[in-house]
Amino acid sequence: MSKLIRPVSILLTGIMVLTALFTISCAGTTVDYKPSGLTSLLAFSSDRDQTVHIYTAKPDGMDIVSTSSEVQTFDGSPMWSPDGTRIVFSSNDPDNYEIWSMKADGSDRKRLTNRTGLDTVPRYSPDGTKIVFVAEQIHTPGGDEDEHEHEQEQENSQEQGHHHAHAYSTYDVMTINADGSNMTALTVSSKANAWNSVPTWSPDGSKILFSTNREGQSIIPVLYTMSPDGSNQQRFGFLFPVEGTTPDWSPVTNKIVFTKGSAAKGEIWVTDAGSPFPGLTAKKLTDNIDNNRNPVWSPDGKQIAFVSDTYGNDDIFTMNADGTDLRRVTYDKSSENHPTWR
């Protein structure tokens, strides 16, 4: 019996030491970025006026205001700036979806990107100097960078009776300065159906957390971290990966909230970024037959806003950080999405 106890005790000791190291390494990184002197507001996208626009509202759902009246313009995927004065978002104005920013009332719209391909889900860095976003990369078969890989894919496809002699898209994470300058690709994908999505910053801005299928190799999306320059890409969760999408990193509690499940049936989960085994210590906050997704933290880390189809259409809900005190924010017979909290 003693021969068995010793290895187990050594393993437990090792885990305790590792936990302590992770706790120490994450200590002191949380900063309160809550805007001072500003009313707490939610921003979200909605098609309540037939066209998808961005709206603001108080957390209780009162005083809903549209930031645009342009019928032909689709605005979505909003995110507040750290100081709460601006919203960065994706818009098809005038035609292709690019990254834009505007004041909270919809004025002073500024176009930040001008690319071929869709740009979406932008997020400010904690200090407000950079914006990370997802960029569609359109690959032309036969191009220098894709020629060898596409020939192999087409050869395999033809063996299966399929033909794909057309352009295809991948989705990668990029950054720009807050004024739109210095565009930098952080992930580089080449295979069809590869994607990296919904990036979020750590509280101190030293890491970017994102969801990925790693060049299409992973059937179930997992969370990865990387440095702001794209280096040090590694699986979040060490030996036990964290499966999920749409992560959001709390600015004050060092906790990460994310969606886990299928596209039609998701649940909201939370885990501690300082844990050496975040995949094992993750806790489910919602547990019902509905599709719950796209969670975001309140600036003080005490509440979470998210999307749910509990009442048939997609609405914005809020709950406490532990999953209690569930409240419905929007009641319109439309689809609301992508909440963000000031």
Describe the structure.
With 342 residues, the chain is mainly β. It has a domain at 31-107 and 208-341: 6 Propeller (Neuraminidase), CATH 2.120.10. 12% of the residues lie in helices and 38% in strands. It has three helices and 24 strands. A hairpin with a 5-residue loop joins strand 16 (245-249) and strand 17. The model is unreliable at 1-33, 144-151 and 157-163 (pLDDT under 50).
Layout of helices and strands:
Elements: H1 2-26, E1 42-49, E2 51-57, E3 65-66, E4 75-80, E5 86-91, E6 98-103, E7 110-111, E8 119-124, E9 130-139, H2 147-159, E10 168-177, E11 184-185, E12 196-201, E13 208-212, E14 222-226, E15 234-235, E16 245-249, E17 255-261, E18 266-272, H3 278-281, E19 283-284, E20 292-297, E21 303-308, E22 315-320, E23 327-328, E24 336-341
Antiparallel strand pairs: 1-2, 1-24, 2-3, 4-5, 5-6, 6-7, 8-9, 9-10, 10-11, 12-13, 13-14, 14-15, 16-17, 17-18, 18-19, 20-21, 21-22, 22-23
Brief characterization of the structure:
This protein is mainly beta and 342 residues long. Helices cover 12% and strands 38% of the residues.
Structural class, from helix and strand content? mainly beta
Low-confidence sequence ranges: 1-33, 144-151, 157-163
What is the helix/strand order? HEEEEEEEEEHEEEEEEEEEHEEEEEE
Mean pLDDT: 86
Q: Give me the number of helical elements.
A: 3
The largest sheet, given as strand count, sense and whether it forms a barrel, is: 4 strands, antiparallel
* Cα Rg: 21 Å
What spatial order of strands do you see in the largest sheet?
3-2-1-24
DSSP, total strands? 24
